[in-house]
Structures are given as C-alpha cells and as structure tokens.
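Sat 14:20. Reprocessing the chain from the morning session after the first attempt stalled halfway. Input below, unchanged.
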Amino acid sequence: MGDTIIIEKYHTNYEKFLWVISARRKEETSHNLHLVCIKKNRVVCTDGNRLHLFRHDREYKPGLYEVKQDKKSITLQRIEDKGYPDVTRVFPRRFLKKIRITETKGMTRGVRGANYTYVVRQMDENETLDLNYFEDCVTEGEWLVKFSDSGGPVYFKNKDRTALIMPAKLDRNYFSFLFEKK
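Finished this time. Tokens:
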C-alpha cells in the first residue's frame, strides 16, 4: 500500500476513522498530536486529554499521517515518522469499578445526558468528564466503562473501539462568584 490512504464515505472503516480523528489536536504540536498514528493492527489519535483507538484488519502502512477531510472522504498522507507518544503507557493496569451503558441511534441529547450523568456519578466527587469528549467518544452500541484510581483516565470499550478520557478536577469554589456581594 502506498503513502496515501483515501477512505471514502462508503468504506467500512469510514465511521471509525471519523471517530478516531475527533480525538486529535487541531493545531500542530511538537509531540505530533495533530497526526493519525497507524500501527500494524490499530489506528490511534490523542490530543493529550483523550485517546481514541480502533483495531483494523487492513493492510495500512504503519506510520504517522496528516489528515485532509472533506464531505466525501478522509485522506491520510504519510509523513516522515518523527515519533508519537507511547500511548500504551497511559492505559490503567487496574480498575476499581466498571459499569455498562448503551447508546442507541436517534437518542436525544437529554437521554444521552442520562448516560453521561451516570458515568460522572461513578467518579470521585471532585472529578468530572468533559461533556464534548464524552459525546465524541460514546457512539451507538453497548459500552463497558471502567474507572481507575482517582485522577486516572476513564476507560471506554465497545466491540471495536477503545477510548480513554482524562477527568477534569472540579474547583470547589467554581460557583463562589454567585455569592459575592457587589
């Protein structure tokens, strides 16, 4: 396979590629987080706060790829491999608890919000997840959600996708401005 990969809208992996590239940095960085990293059997992107990965069974040439996207296709152009973070290091080795959530096609934002709330309530009281990251991550189907130690990433897995989202710390004084006297 050449140094350019074109994934047309009708391709079986198109939706997976859309999903994985949603987790990359939009601007160029020194750690190449704006690129797609393709390994022998997986495709991964991270922006440093979240990570999306899917396994593939295609003959994609391993390496780093720049992304060009339009309404009909995703084009990946292989570039010189300048290194990519070792993403295997961020996967937790043990989990404290696990739950399952289900997303179905056509769910309203309010119903999806119930899944988000359920996940966040399993976390430490001073932690939350970015709602946009959660919505980018959790697509249709059943998801296994695992929680590691406080401050560790929340792990999401369905039949062919894996994601990690780093929790955000809640500032106990976030709403204190409401009680300030003017």
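The mean pLDDT is 87.
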